[in-house]
Amino acid sequence: MSDGQTTKVSAGPVKTRTIQIPLPPGGFNLDCGQSLPELQIAYETYGTLSPKKDNAVFLCHALSGSAHVAGYHEPLDDTAPWWDNMVGPGKGIDTRFYYVVCANIIGGCRGTTGPSSVNPATKTPYGSLFPHISIGDMVSGHRLLLKELGIERLAAVIGGSMGGMQALEWIIRYPDMIDNCICIASAAGLSAQSLAFDIISRKAITSDPHWNGGDFYSTGNFPGSGLALARQIGHVTYLSQEMMETKFGREKTEAGSRFQVESYLEYQGGKFIKRFDANSYFHITSAIDQYHLSEKSGSLEKAFEPVRAKVLVVALSSDWLFPPSQSIDLANALLRAGKHVTYCELDAPHGHDSFLIDVGPLGEVIRAFLPWVRSLPAHEEESAKRKAANMELATTRTCPFCERRKDYAIITDMIRPGSRVLDLGCGNGELLRLLAAKRNISGIGVDIDVKHVIAVIDGGQDIFQGDIDHGLQAIPDNTFDCAILSETLQVVKKPQLVLREMLRVAKEGIVSFPNFGNWSHRLRLLCSGRMPKGGALPFEWYDTPNIHLFTLDDFIQLCREDHIRMLNTVCIPESNTSRALLGLGLRNLGADRILVRIMREPDKLAQKGNDDGKQGRQDTA
Amino acid sequence: MSDGQTTKVSAGPVKTRTIQIPLPPGGFNLDCGQSLPELQIAYETYGTLSPKKDNAVFLCHALSGSAHVAGYHEPLDDTAPWWDNMVGPGKGIDTRFYYVVCANIIGGCRGTTGPSSVNPATKTPYGSLFPHISIGDMVSGHRLLLKELGIERLAAVIGGSMGGMQALEWIIRYPDMIDNCICIASAAGLSAQSLAFDIISRKAITSDPHWNGGDFYSTGNFPGSGLALARQIGHVTYLSQEMMETKFGREKTEAGSRFQVESYLEYQGGKFIKRFDANSYFHITSAIDQYHLSEKSGSLEKAFEPVRAKVLVVALSSDWLFPPSQSIDLANALLRAGKHVTYCELDAPHGHDSFLIDVGPLGEVIRAFLPWVRSLPAHEEESAKRKAANMELATTRTCPFCERRKDYAIITDMIRPGSRVLDLGCGNGELLRLLAAKRNISGIGVDIDVKHVIAVIDGGQDIFQGDIDHGLQAIPDNTFDCAILSETLQVVKKPQLVLREMLRVAKEGIVSFPNFGNWSHRLRLLCSGRMPKGGALPFEWYDTPNIHLFTLDDFIQLCREDHIRMLNTVCIPESNTSRALLGLGLRNLGADRILVRIMREPDKLAQKGNDDGKQGRQDTA
Question: Is A569 part of the contact surface with chain B (CB cutoff 8 Å)?
Fold first, then answer.
């Protein structure tokens, strides 16, 4: 990562401010139909709003977070910043360039109106009278805050976990004011398992004899034992099994009688009840549980219809509270809805909390995705440098696949301007950028390597991080005009399936591959009795990624059997001998690399046979 | 599966009996140093003890189980049998042949002495005075029961989850009385995550205001709310995420206000507190948490030293409470300790409770593993039939790998009698049986297919179910005299690594593979320009499992580079032309298949060079 290039420093001293939101006579209307007569919001800001107001980034916090994202309070208090390693000068969300705003949510207990706030009607804390709140209510409240701050446009809205739910709600409720959205370790709705843990946690709170239906503020007692239990259950779900094993295993405390994990849980429970309100925990988890993006509109795809922002969906590999499959659902629905979406699954061993604990490449991914603040020349300069460095890095590491470049000019000519393209195994995104620049072709890449993902994002293209061998199922038929598989068919596990899939999701396909039928390979096997190595096949037999070798004629035969029509075949020679053989019309002998454009055989043409296939047969040497 | 051949019927009416165990004056000594003055044990039996008493099988129940395994009580009561689909005439544990015994554990609340039993010293329930119990105490108690029942020998001890811990404890404490052990979905000790859930569950119980330190029996109140919470947490951990999603998703109840998963959890909690004691839950989960097989002896391997039983370790793929990695640890430690062990990982989508809910092939695996009761001729006859059927099934499905058989005679001759052999990709175990029968060679197989696993178990051999590409790491150096890789090197992802691994775990290796340098393949590629197909390579290029093709000379070169010495090379022709070429000494042209015996190059010989390699080079055509 080019991460090391900039020195990261603390966001420094920061103040939590509170603001009384001016409300109409009816108060602040909630999704449940009730309203709040008053609304106070606590918020913090970092960095400076640019004169053009084009650099505002709003951060949405998760269940137990607050407005205090980074830096420190003066005098020091016990509020820990929740994303200090992500927000600050030189960090993933760089406060030298962005004006970052974060606010405590409605229903919370860190300065924004919540169940422990005084109810103006009774002059006592709301308690059991606090109305049901929704994720949408949190977002609407924060929208009013931004209005008060004079912010009408967001360069980005960013959130993880429940914060990711808010980020999605932002781009659906206020599509015209947001350019970019980053949704991390989140979902369109909780899984049954995560619902179950929340339900049990709330039951633990309401079973506490001090709960008193939520009206405990005046009793002098607090349902701390129930809230601690709830927090402890939560804590287990925030960490991966692997991380707990590494961190605690079956180790005992020094005293010897208790497991370390027991002492950890007790510490976490005890710490939490000092800073959190049981009613807030009850209401916020209820809001999370009820959040269900596709419920109203019938499908996720429809729910995303209003979205105008570019969206980055990030999943964490070991997250079991918001498993990657749920992030994939989000990304696929955005794709189906025709939106600009990038999906990235980070290798994060620490579970759901990885995005807070161990940022890893997440900072790089976010930094690459966030837009250049063009009104700040220093940012444009730094971004351009970083972009170049990332591209360089991704190129250096792709070794033989760089050879793809020879195909690029030919591929670019094959695709109609204005097409929508899927580039399978897109590497650092060079082809996608070429297509965009030269032919006005909008594309999306698929690649498994996070370095490639960062480079593609940095280049401004969309990408889905994933394995082609099981990556296309969720893409609907005919989503693209053309799918490209450049120097990749021979490395996939199921070439036939991949070909079928690419011609299902796209009207046409372009495939390039090394021709095992080339004279040099035949000669080597014939004369030396060794597996061919060199040229288009640079690896030893035992460590080659090329696990399905085949010749042009093999490919032609497969196309015939699978009712695939070959529209163009371009044979690329890499030596004079190859060139001479091609000159004699001996394609299967002469071609070192092949590039073909294919489509499904239209039903009406199926009986006519495949001309290209016949021609290929004549060439057989 | 041949499962359908026998009609499965209910175990029928059964009675729970209780017995007062005669104790010495000091009472029943517990691992904690305290003792129980009286010990009553509740048990049930199924089937008939054979005159030779060689058919007794003891079942160990899990946390919330009881003596009531199968069948029904008369008159009907609300005790549900916990393994009715596994135990009965025609079922996995066939009560027509086995005499099955199951007993409630010490500390329980279903008829065996536990915290709710009357303490003879106080004439009131033990409550807080009940001593700490261990998994070992449960086993010692049951050993006394068997003595009373006149059973001195067990054909098998079987248990799942906490029952698996007891089963392991049985074969360590009483090695001489047990022939076979089946340990399902269990571990040598809980993971940190599972510990955490138990700790939180007990905290929920002790936080209940009715708990009263455990002395609630006379108060008229019961800590039901805490116990229900504990059970609900448990229930989530018993099911897989996938299963909860399928079963409940985000569905609401008919009334519409609650999630179905909420109503399910409430039902489970409510049902449980009617039949279970909070003190028993507290004590049994504590015993599970404290169980740590390797703690005393320093290593699992040492803990297993006394074991004389054959052990079958079964893991369930989606179990996250006792994840498969923990079962693999058990199996590997048994292997390192030189015990007879078979490991099997069943594809079980329902999580930890799969072994109770959806038995699937588990019944077949258990049935294959359990010994023939030779004193019951009907059993011997049925077992022989089933064995033949399973072998047939496993053979039919292995298609091209059946070709291996041509090698078997040669391989058998290559291995010294009395050797210990590892057969990688062992198929239905035919070679292992041949080696055992003809050369007194004891072996263990590795295969990924459950049908093969059942066939190998049925044939009386040991097998590790797993993927060779990541299966050997846990086997220590030089565990075997010889490792066999018959027609498998070309299908693995990392051939070089697999070769290195096999020569690390075994002193010698025997490898057979199709020779891509054979004249027929060369000719086909040369003349037709198509990938070779036929003979030793029967697949199309796009769906072949043979992902790393290579020639004899390629193999020789790899051996040279990797300091592997080739001890014998046998070339197998499959046509007259091949035979003729071999006659001319042209091995790389003539051999259709190759069989080589290899070993690591001893350091002192490393400089002398590799004779066999040189000879191979001369043959190059």
Answer: no
